[in-house]
Design goal:
Helices cover 32% and strands 29% of the residues. Helix 1 packs parallel to helix 2 (61-74). The chain has helices spanning 32-45, 61-74; strands at residues 12-17, 23-25, 28-30, 50-56, 79-84. It is an alpha/beta fold. Strand 2 and strand 3 form a beta hairpin. The protein is built from 2 helices and 5 strands, in the order E-E-E-H-E-H-E. It is globular, with a radius of gyration of 12 Å.
Length: 87
């Protein structure tokens, strides 16, 4: 893949909302406050940052909306949403 060894790509961020409710950034569990801080920093470095929001099909819809609200509050408009099948 085009990702660096650290798992961070300056062109996009991968955010996942799991079935259980926690949110992950680049496959690492984060709080909403941590997610906001990290995305804010990355967006400041790259105003064209795209976010890929992966939402488990059985996840609480409110969790996904909270992430979308956070992205909007940061001014991140380039967002793709996909659903995931949980095992």
């Amino acid at each position: 893949t085009g990702q660096s060894a650290a798992g961070s790509n300056p062109l996009y961020a991968s955010v996942t909302v799991t079935q259980e409710g926690p949110v992950c950034l680049e496959n690492k569990l984060v709080t909403m406050a941590e997610l906001k801080a990290k995305l804010k920093e990355r967006f400041a470095s790259n105003p064209k940052l795209a976010v890929i929001l992966n939402v488990d099909k059985r996840a609480n819809f409110g969790s996904a909306v909270s992430v979308l609200d956070l992205l909007q509050s940061l001014g991140i408009k380039n967002t793709d949403i996909s659903t995931l099948e949980s095992d």
